[in-house]
Amino acid sequence: MKVIFARNNANFISKIIRLYTWSEWSHVGVIDGDYVIEAIGGKGVEKTLIKAFKKRYDITKIRRIPGDIEIARNLIGKQFDQKGLWGGLLHMSVQDPDKWFCSELVAHASYAFDSKYAHKVSPENLYWLSSE
Fold first, then answer.
1. How far is CA 99 from CA 13, 28, 84, in A?
2. What's the CATH code of the domain at 78?
3. Which of 15, 19, 102, 112 is most buried, with most CB under 10 Å away?
4. Those residues with Cβ within 8 angstroms of residue 90's Cβ, 6 or more apart along the chain or in another chain
5. pTM score, whole prediction
6. What is the pLDDT of residues 22-61, one digit of tens each?
7. Residue 40, exposed/middle/buried by CB under 10 A (0-12, 13-18, 19+)?
């Protein structure tokens, strides 16, 4: 499964996520043809054109992770897990099992993590497991 890692050095939220997670990356999504399946704050899980995705970020990198893209496709239309994201940052288990944030979505679709722990996975964890 192809994934795209991203960061925006001018965006405050991107910086906060990277600082807190000790990650080079603040966002990640699954590539599906000319699109990225991603969980977007305030919107939910959507398919975005790769061109539009790359416009939002200074730096992107495409890598591979073993997984099933159909799992990611099946999450399109689900809501964003705002509470789960902040719970993760505050080390509290308050995620909604039917809502998603970006790294949780990719971890859930990957073969590398047990889905019940996907909410604990950061973009950096996914990057460590990815390959060129």
1. 20, 16, 8
2. 3.90.1720.10
3. 102
4. none
5. 0.89
6. 788 889 999 999 999 999 988 999 999 999 999 999 999 9
7. middle
Task: Give me 108's structure tokens.
Answer: 């859930």
Q: How far is CA 129 from the centre of its chain?
A: 14
Whole-number Å distance between alpha carbons of 106 and 100: 10
For residue 85, what are the domain limits? 2-129
Spatial separation of the C-alpha atoms in residues 30 and 20, rounded to whole Å: 23
Lookup: tokens for 114: 């047990």
Output DSSP code: residue 119: G
Which segments of 22-101 does DSSP mark as H helices, in order? 50-55, 69-73, 82-89
Query: Which one-letter amino acid corresponds to residue 37?
Result: I
- Confidence label for 86 from pLDDT (cuts 50, 70 and 90): low
